[in-house]
């Protein structure tokens, strides 16, 4: 239902309606085209952000599975009989490894999020710059008339 409404919104041709309201020095087609490009850029930026979020969530699930597998192995090793000093040393080593892996995983996830944010920001920044150029051209063209 929502996608049908979105399609109807994008199919709406405002230039047909604005064509009747002729304002001197205003090129309705250019304005409409510029706004259409803005909407397309926002849509692409949202897709980049969404894809980035999906990648982060997928990686978090992978990390969770890996962690659960490691916990199962470690639990089995700890439950086996053995020298208490050796077990304590092994537990300390396992805790150190787990901590280092956690830091590495957090860094990886933070980098993934930053990359997705940067891609979306760059796309929007590029469109903003294009929009300023388009507006400048409209004003220059209007001043010449």
Give a quick set of tags describing it.
mainly alpha; coiled coil; Phasin family protein; Phasin_subfam-1; single chain
What secondary-structure arrangement, pairings included, does this model have?
Elements: H1 2-11, H2 14-18, H3 28-79, H4 84-144
How would you portray this structure in words?
The chain has 145 residues and is mainly α. It has one domain (30-144). The chain has 4 helices and no strands. The longest helix is centred in the C-terminal third of the chain and has 61 residues, at 84-144.
Number of helices: 4
Structural class: mainly alpha
Parts with pLDDT < 50 across at least 5 consecutive residues: none
- The 3D shape can be described as rod-shaped
Gap between N and C termini: 46 Å
Mean pLDDT: 83
Largest sheet: none
Tally of discrete structural domains: 1
Number of strands: 0
Order of helices and strands: HHHH
Report the helical percentage.
Answer: over 70%
Mind telling me the C-alpha Rg?
28 Å
Beta-strand portion reads: under 5%
């Amino acid at each position: 239902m929502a996608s049908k409404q979105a399609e109807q919104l994008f199919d709406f041709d405002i230039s047909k309606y604005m064509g009747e309201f002729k304002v001197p020095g205003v090129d309705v087609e250019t304005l409409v085209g510029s706004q259409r490009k803005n909407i397309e850029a926002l849509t692409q930026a949202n897709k980049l952000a969404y894809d980035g979020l999906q990648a982060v969530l997928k990686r978090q699930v992978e990390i969770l599975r890996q962690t659960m597998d490691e916990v199962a192995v470690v639990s089995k090793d700890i439950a086996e009989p053995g020298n208490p000093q050796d077990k304590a040393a092994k537990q300390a080593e396992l805790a150190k490894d787990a901590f280092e892996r956690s830091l590495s995983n957090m860094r990886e996830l933070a980098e993934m999020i930053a990359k997705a944010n940067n891609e979306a920001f760059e796309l929007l920044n590029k469109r903003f710059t294009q929009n300023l150029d388009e507006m400048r051209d409209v004003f220059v063209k209007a001043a010449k008339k």
